[in-house]
Write a structure and sequence with these properties.
about 60 residues, mainly alpha, 5 helices
Length: about 60
């Protein structure tokens, strides 16, 4: 069994996904399968304003106050 991915590998996967690369393109670059990348993207979504300031602040930041 392979060891878990490091935080740096997870961050790289999320950055590459944000740039628009496919899961199959990202997998070899971070050292896991495309299914592993899909799991990272699902479990570690990008934190937007609503995640670190609360839902009300996130809505205000998007202009929906």
């Amino acid at each position: 069994m392979r060891p878990h991915l490091t935080m740096e590998q997870r961050q790289l996967a999320l950055r590459l996904k944000a740039r628009g690369l496919s899961l199959r393109e990202i997998g070899p670059q971070v050292g896991c399968s495309h299914q592993g990348v899909a799991l990272i993207v699902r479990c570690f979504p990008a934190a937007g304003p609503s995640r670190w300031l609360g839902a009300r602040a996130g809505a205000a930041a998007r202009g929906r106050s």
